[in-house]
Design brief:
The chain has about 280 residues and is of the alpha/beta class. It has 10 helices and 10 strands. The strands form 2 sheets. An 8-stranded parallel β-sheet has the order 3-4-5-6-7-8-9-10. Strands 1-2 form a two-stranded antiparallel sheet. Helix 1 links the parallel strand 3 and strand 4. Helix 2 crosses helix 3 and helix 7 packs across helix 8. The protein starts with 7 loop residues before the first strand and ends in a 17-residue tail after the last helix. InterPro entries: AKR, AKR5G, Aldo/ket_reductase_CS, NAD(P)_OxRdtase_dom_sf, NADP_OxRdtase_dom.
Length: about 280
C-alpha cells in the first residue's frame, strides 16, 4: 500500500507514475497557476496534469521550472501529463499538437500524453501518432482519457501498443465499477479526474460522517478511497493550504465498511460530458 506522496504505481511498460498529483483544469494562465504548481512541487508533489485545451501550459511550464529549481530537483523527478484536443485528432495534427504542447511547457519530453476524448472516427489515427512518439522515445507513456470499455476494445483491435492509462471522471457518485475492473484486467491504469466532483461532495452527510470518524476532511477521505481502489488521482487546487491538505492521505486507511458505504453512493451521475454523447 502506498505510504507517501512520492509512492508510484508501475505502468505496464515499466514506467512509474505517482499515485497522487495535481490537476489544473480551468485554471487560467498567470501568477496564481505558476505559484500553485511551484507550491505543489515544494510540498512533495511529483505529478502535474494539464491539457492543450486548458490553455495554461505556459504557466504550468513556468511553475515546473521554478519549482524544480527551488526544490533542487531535476526534470526526471517529475511526471508531467498533457493531452491532445479533439480538433487535433489525426496523425500529422496530433504530432504537431505534441510539439506545440512541449514548446509551451518548455520541456523536451512528456511523461504521459493522452487522447483527451474518444471522438469517433478520429482517435485511431491519433493513437497511431502517439505510438510513433512512444516508439521514437519522445514520450515515456501514452494513454487515453474518457474512454469507455467499448472505445478501449475498439482501439485495441488495431493498436500496436496498449494504452497505459485511462483518465476518466471518477468519484463517489460515478464509480464506473465495470470500467475499473476492465482496466485492471487489461493492466491499464485508471486515473480519476474531478475526484471531488468539483467540490460538490464536500458536504455529503455520509462522507462527512466517515471523515469525522478518521479525523480527516471529506476531500481526504475521497482521495484515500481512490487510492484504496488502485486509482491514480489528480485533485485540482490553486490554494496552498488545500494542496497540502490533499496530500495528507497516507497516514490513515479506510475500513472495508467505509469503502462499501462510499461505493454505495454511486448514482452513475456525471458532472462532465458523457463520452458516448458529447459535442465539442
Amino acid at each position: 500500500m502506498m505510504k507517501n506522496l512520492q509512492d508510484t504505481t508501475t505502468l505496464h511498460n515499466g514506467i512509474r507514475m505517482p499515485w497522487l498529483g495535481i490537476g489544473v483544469f480551468k485554471v487560467e494562465e498567470g501568477a496564481e497557476l505558476v505559484h500553485a504548481v511551484k507550491s505543489a512541487i515544494q510540498h512533495g508533489y511529483r505529478s502535474i496534469d494539464t491539457a492543450a485545451i486548458y490553455e495554461n501550459e505556459r504557466s504550468v511550464g513556468q511553475g515546473i521550472h521554478e519549482g524544480i529549481q527551488e526544490a533542487h530537483l531535476s526534470r526526471e523527478d517529475l511526471f508531467v501529463t498533457s493531452k491532445v484536443w479533439n480538433a487535433d485528432l489525426g496523425y500529422e495534427s496530433t504530432l504537431a499538437a505534441y510539439e506545440a504542447s512541449l514548446n509551451k511547457l518548455g520541456l523536451a519530453y512528456l511523461d504521459l500524453y493522452l487522447i483527451h476524448w474518444p471522438v469517433q472516427g478520429k482517435y485511431k489515427e491519433a493513437w497511431r501518432a502517439l505510438e510513433t512518439l512512444y516508439k521514437e522515445g519522445r514520450v515515456k507513456a501514452i494513454g487515453v482519457s474518457n474512454f469507455q470499455i467499448h472505445h478501449l476494445e475498439d482501439l485495441m483491435k488495431e493498436a500496436e501498443i496498449k494504452p497505459m492509462v485511462n483518465q476518466v471522471e471518477f468519484h463517489p457518485l460515478l464509480t464506473q465499477k465495470e470500467l475499473l475492473e476492465f482496466c485492471k484486467k487489461q493492466n491499464i491504469q485508471l486515473e480519476a479526474w474531478s475526484p471531488l466532483r468539483q467540490g460538490q461532495l464536500l458536504d455529503h452527510p455520509v462522507l462527512k460522517e466517515i471523515a469525522e470518524k478518521h479525523g480527516k476532511s471529506v476531500a481526504q477521505v475521497i482521495l484515500r478511497w481512490d487510492l484504496q481502489h488502485g486509482v491514480v488521482t489528480i485533485p485540482k487546487s490553486t490554494k496552498e493550504h488545500r494542496i497540502i491538505e490533499n496530500a495528507a492521505v497516507f497516514d490513515f486507511e479506510l475500513t472495508l465498511e467505509d469503502i462499501a458505504r462510499i461505493d454505495g453512493l454511486n448514482q452513475d451521475d456525471r458532472v462532465g460530458p458523457d463520452p458516448d454523447n458529447f459535442d465539442f
